[in-house]
Amino acid sequence: MPRPVVAGLDGTRASFAAADWAAREALQRELPMTLVHAWSWEPVDLPVTRDEETQREAARRMLHEAAAGLEERYPDLDLTVEQPPAPAVAALLERSEDAEMLVLGTRGYGPLLGFLLGSVGLQVLVRAGGPVVMVRAAEDESDRPERRRDEVVAGLHQLTAGGEPVFAFAFAHAAAHGMRLRAVRAWSLPTVFNYSPAAMKLADESGGIEAHEKKLLHDALKPWRERYPEVEVVEHVDIGAAAEVLLSASARAGLMVVGRRGNPGRGRHLGPVAHATLHHAGCPVAVVAHD
Predict the structure, then answer these.
(1) Domain hosting residue 160, numbered range
(2) Which residues face 114 on adjacent strands?
(3) Which of 18, 51, 127, 265 is the most buried (most CB within 10 A)?
(4) DSSP string, the chain
C-alpha cells in the first residue's frame, strides 16, 4: 500500500500553502494525500471564548472547506481528511510514522529572512522519524525578477550508510520532478586539535584536502547515480561553513534537503545547518532524520 503525503492544517495561510504543495507533490508521485487538522478542546476563561461544540464545528468546517478547495484544483487527487481529537504534535508525529513525508506550513520573516518556526513545527521537526517538509506561505513575487527553480539542493555531510535517508529523499524528489540534483559538501581546514597525520596522508594522496573531499562525495554518489540514471547530478564542493556553502548554492533551488542527526526518542536536535537553512532558505526545506 502506498504511503501517503500528509499535510498538517491549522487554519493559517502558511498551512494552506503547505497543503497545496503537498497536493501537487502527491499527484506528481502518484500517491494518496491525507489532510490532518488535530483538534482538542482547550477552554480559556475569556468573554470571547466559544463553547466546545461551536469550536469543534468551526474546525470541522475549516478542514472540509480546505479539502474541497484542493479537490476542485486537483480533481485527480486521492484525498482523505482526518480530525483526530489529540494535541497537534502528537497527532502529526503519529501520522508521520506511516507517511512518505509530512508537510507543514511556517510563517516567514520576509523574502530575505526566511522561516519563522512555531512551537508545533519545531517539536515535530526534532521528533519525527521521517522527512518533514516546511513550506512558507506564498508571497507576492510580481515585482521580483523570475527565478528558475529547477534544482534540488542537498547538503550531504554524512556520506556513510547512516546518511542514506538524505540521499534517498533528494534523489527521489529530483527524479519525480525531472530536476537537477546539486549535491553540496562543505569542507574546512583542520585545526590543531583535530589534525590527524593519517587523515592528512590520505588527503595528500588525493591531491589535497579539497580533492579528497571531492573524491569522497563522488564515490558516495556513485550507487545513487546508478539507481537514478535519469537524474543529472552536479557535485558542489566548497570551503566554508556548511550552512553558508549550502545557502550560497541554492539560487535555483526548488527544494533544499538537509539531514537531522538522531533517532526519535534520543538525541533530538536540529543542528546548526538545519537551523540556518530553515531560517534563511528561499524555498521549501526538507529535514530528513538519519543515524
Answers:
(1) 151-290
(2) 110
(3) 18
(4) -PPPEEEE--SSHHHHHHHHHHHHHHHHHT--EEEE---------STTPPPHHHHHHHHHHHHHHHHHHHHHH-TT--EEEE--SS-HHHHHHHHHTT-SEEEEEEEEEETTTEEE--HHHHHHHHH-SS-EEEEEPP---TTS------EEEEE----SGGGHHHHHHHHHHHHHHT-EEEEEEEE-PPPTTS--HHHHHHHHHTTSHHHHHHHHHHHHHHHHHHH-TTS-EEEEEEES-HHHHHHHT-TTEEEEEEEEES-TTSS----HHHHHHHHH-SS-EEEEEE-
pLDDT reading at 264 higher than 90:
no
For residue range 125-180, list pLDDT tens digits in order: 989 989 999 998 765 444 444 668 899 999 998 888 888 999 999 999 999 999 99
Contact 243, 253 (CB under 8 A): no
In angstroms, the CA 124 to CA 167 distance is: 21
Q: What are 205-231's pLDDT values in tens digits? A: 555 678 889 999 999 999 999 999 999
pLDDT higher at 61 or 140: 61
The C-alpha atoms of residue 265 and residue 134 are separated, in whole angstroms, by: 21
Whether residue 172 lies inside any domain: the answer is yes
Q: Which residue has the cell 466546545?
A: 52
pTM assigned to the model: 0.85
Q: Are residues 50 and 169 in the same domain?
A: no
